[in-house]
Amino acid sequence: MRLTYTSDVWYKNAVVYCLDVETFKDGNGDGVGDFRGLTQEIDYLAGLGVTCLWLMPFFPTPNKDDGYDITDFYSIDPRLGTLGDFVEFMRTASDRGLRVIADLVVNHTSDQHPWFKESRSGRDSPRRDWYVWSDTPEPDDPKQVVFPDKEDSVWEYDEGSGQYYLHSFYRHQPDLNVGNPEVRDEIARILGFWMELGLSGFRVDAVPFLIENVNPQLANPHEFLADLRAFMTRRKGGSILLGEVNLPYKDLVRYFGDGLGDQITMCFDFIGMQRAWLSMARSDAGPLASALRERPEPPKDCQWAMFLRNHDELTLDKLTKAEQKEIFAAFGPSKDMQIYDRGLRRRLPSMLGGDLRRIKMAYSLLFSLPGTPVIFYGEEIGMGENLDEEGRMAVRIPMQWSKDGGFSQAEPVREVPEGSFAPDRVNVADQKRDTSSLLRWFQLLIERYRECPELAWGEYTVLDTGHPAVIAHRSDADGATVVVAHNLCDTAQDVELKLAGLERYRLTDLLVDGTVDVSADGVVQLPMGPHGCRWLRAAPPEIAPEDASVKAR
Ligand code: NOJ
Questions:
Q1: Whose CA is nearest to atom 5 of ligand 1?
Q2: Where is the Glycosyl hydrolase family 13 catalytic domain (predicted)?
């Protein structure tokens, strides 16, 4: 593949920044974040270097699942602004070169959506089949219940119309029936609407749920995804679907579109994410290295989306109970940090005990992993969680702009944490002034990631390092190579890497000044500081810059 046309497939080395308008910045002083506030901060986001914003749901909602329960797909939650404010925001984002994608939550609606009200009004309602109804639902498999703290079944009896309706999530979120062609058309209309307003794509909520459990069963559920993607591409080339598909690799690859790459453009690497946490808990590269080695290559023009944390619980559902326990013990030992028996309701910096060196290493690792990095707002300044907030809301707290919070002049929609992660200790304003801050580190990582498209695009090889705590890989594309190494433990380690084809090359450190030479038999000795990170660009000796000696970092 040639790197020349990278902008056509812009998402392959995008830096995606997920935020909730509600908690990012309040522009009208009512305590709730809004589009006006977000628009004021676009220059901050552009300055950070991110290239694509992912907006969590911003539609009218009773807000029983933080906006993932929608009552109107074609407008804006009045608490967050108006369509006019949205268009102004889009215009400003585009002016600063930022793309925008939004959550597409069409597996279900709120039970307050007019469609559901109509559907439940009687068995002969014209919208009856927009949802999934049954007289005799299949008995529940406990594994199907996503929120076991609140639900014990995925079926709910509707007294009025005397049937059960399906709800893969909360009972107030009835599943739409994509087995019905009218529903499929309506979903395309929703996509078309927001694309006309400038969106470059969608983060698709709960994809496997969306295409399974429908009535009648679709002959080929994946055809629906391919149809949606084709529709988008017809309307606007380069628009994307970023899918929440938390499945084992072998099942997940179908969602890219069986070798064709015509369905979901990018899938989150949930397996890599969970193994990365296991690796960090054990200071052992093994679990993450095995995930990277097992991971199938996505079809042409598709991509993996890499993340360490998101807006939900840190789900560990693809690890064994014993492995989950190891991670709980390392990063979330107390019961109130744990949720649904499979995850943690914490942010990364607090899980790593606020240890800046380790936090910097974790994000350096994230940005260097093969794929497109996705970060959650506030990660760039090391925000912690507020365990006093309910459930997953613990991590969805107001952005910390300044010592006094700076999110709103009024009582904020959610409380910021106290203690070492409070705004007076962790905020944007202070970190902008501090050249060694996490914020500055993010800027550097983003800059380097963008300058090294090999990391996103290239063919990668996980390297043997000879030391269990050090994970290293190389990415090659179009004759260019980047080598990266990360030390997961807090003691210095010297590692030796074998770099076939790079004999006598010079490696230039991209994070600090320094070079290191590869020997005539292709070996490089790499000193790694405690939680050290190395990003090295390889160049043949004749074009490598003359430079300083190697230091441990
Ligand atoms: C996945 C979302 O990430 C989560 O926050 C939400 O509760 C469920 N889907 C239901 O929409």
A1: 312
A2: 18-414
